Amino acid sequence: MVQEGLDDLDRAVAIDAECDVKADLEDRGKLSGRQSEGGCMVPKGNRCPEGQGLAQAVSQAGTLRERLAAITYTGAISDILDEMGLREQVLPHEIRPIRPGQVVAGRALTVLGEPVAGLTRDDYFVPFLTMLGSIEAGDVVVIQANDCAVAHFGELSAETAIARGGAGVVVDGGVRDVEYLLKLGFPAFARYATPRDMVSRWRVVDCNVPITIGRTRVSAGDYVLGDRDGVAIVPREVAEEAIGRAEEVIREENQIRTAVVQGMHPVTAYEKFGRF
User: Fold this and answer.
1) CA pair distance 201, 90, nearest whole angstrom
2) pTM assigned to the model
3) CA separation for the pair 29, 34 (Å, rounded)
């Protein structure tokens, strides 16, 4: 069954305005707990923190997304994650934006899929459409397709995501309807494009469960930042610290840039600012 996970704080709004969420996320790989009315598990990490008002919680989550989107290049966040000891947070370089210059920023709605033939049309469509229906404002759909033959996201999927406030899609696999995706302005990152449909070939197995793309573990609610250089994943547990440190790096690099343009020797700049 496709599960609708709810993000850090603002996803909890859609399930329970009183933050009465009792599901538990164990070891980042196992979902357990009660089901919501929509039949979806809610990880413990997505509950409102004890003693924190719901409005404050939602505001903080929104602010983090906005701050992440304001980081002008993935290199800054990647460097900080390296410094924090998180050295496998960049997805494989083959996953590229369908148009250079596209930027995606938001929370991960993770999707696990598999190639499979011989099922009914409902078996292909219903899980996929349920996933699309679970998209919340600020979500980036992150798909581990385990497949390299079909398109796993297209124009109607993008239209649905846009209508629900989705921020983009990142696919370890393929997309189609590229011209329409470009006209929509919907950020899409993928390994390839193909017109080949998923029906009778590929299905969604589960949603909002931990997935692995390349050497990077992605969990529901992690933060995603992608640009022309690639895609970085910021674990939600360290997102506030990592984003804050990346903002400081950008400020420092602006000072370094000014200094070297004005003639400072790069070694001197490195010694003065401690980075380059």
Assistant:
1) 29
2) 0.78
3) 17
- pLDDT tens digit sequence for 213-228: 999 999 999 999 999 9
Supply angle C-alpha 242, 243, 247, rounded to 5: 115
Q: Could you identify the residue written with the tokens 């979806």?
A: 40
Alpha helices in 113-221 (DSSP H): 121-133, 155-163, 178-184
Q: Could you tell me which of 96, 161, 97, 105 has the C-alpha nearest to residue 128?
A: 161
Determine whether 78 is exposed, middle or buried from the number of CB atoms within 10 Å of its CB (0-12, 13-18, 19+).
buried
pLDDT in tens, 125-174: 999 999 999 999 999 999 999 999 999 999 999 999 999 999 999 999 99
* Angle (CA) 75 90 276, round 5°: 25
Which residues, 6 or more positions from 249, have their beta carbon under 8 angstroms from its beta carbon? 76, 79, 80, 275
pLDDT higher than threshold 50 for residue 32? no
